[in-house]
Amino acid sequence: QSYCQRLQHDMHFLTSTSRLNEQVVDKIVLQLNRVYPQILTNEEAEKFRNPKASLQTRLSDLLKHLQKKGDRHCQEFYRALQINAEQLFNDLPSRKILKTPDPTEIDTDKEQYMLNDRGPVFFLACFSVAAGLALFWYCCNSETQVIGRARRILGFSPIIIGRHARNICMLYLEDMSRN
């Protein structure tokens, strides 16, 4: 959608009562006049800031004027609206249409969250269990003669695994060495 079409779509929402107050409209007009002087001339800015006319009339005239000027002018209005009234900008009907996802499209952020929802502690716990089982299987294999090395490794195990687990492993290794 072009910005002019979006502005046409949002016009009723913006001009309805109490959406924009006078201060915000004045800030938008001043920004379009001062920061982007090619958007509104001084005379046009004075016309749209005239306190004698009602706010709805001035805002409606401003939006129609910008639509006549072209897409770039409407885009600058949206930029000024975002800067001066971000909450209102996010609530615009045209923004909600743009934010509505395609039901056939895969949301990669959501998919990434679903794959990683358990966090790093869960990963470390699983990795520790797998490493412990691998070490246990390696040490208990009857073909290997590394029980002495395994004792040395398990001697430092309070750093790696808990004392209770270390004691169980040491008892098992002693029992295996007797057989």
Automatic annotation (TrEMBL):
Organism expressing this protein natively: Poecile atricapillus
Alphabetical keyword list: Disulfide bond, Endoplasmic reticulum, Membrane, Mitochondrion, Transmembrane, Transmembrane helix
Subcellular location: Endoplasmic reticulum membrane; Mitochondrion membrane
CARD domain ranges (all copies): 38-96
Subunit structure: Associates with BCL10 by CARD-CARD interaction.
GO cellular component labels: endoplasmic reticulum membrane; mitochondrial membrane
Ranges that cross the membrane: 120-138
Pfam family, one: CARD
Membrane topology: Single-pass membrane protein
Main location: endoplasmic reticulum
Source taxon at top rank: Eukaryota
GO biological process entries: regulation of apoptotic process
Protein name: Caspase recruitment domain-containing protein 19
